[in-house]
Design a protein that fits this description.
single chain; 55 residues; alpha+beta; two-stranded antiparallel sheet; 1 helix; 2 strands; 11% strand; elongated
Length: 55
Amino acid sequence: IGGHGDVVLGMEGRWANGRDPWKLSFEGDRVYGRGVVDNKGQHMVHLAAIAEIIR
């Protein structure tokens, strides 16, 4: 099992629609903010697999 939990730089000037990477914002069913999805899905898959192995 491998992965990382860090995030990339904020890069404020590259965010669309005036979004701020340092503030969590919601738009419809989406969440925007620095590091909200960077490799988090992989961690969830690993945790689910471990739970299945234990079960």
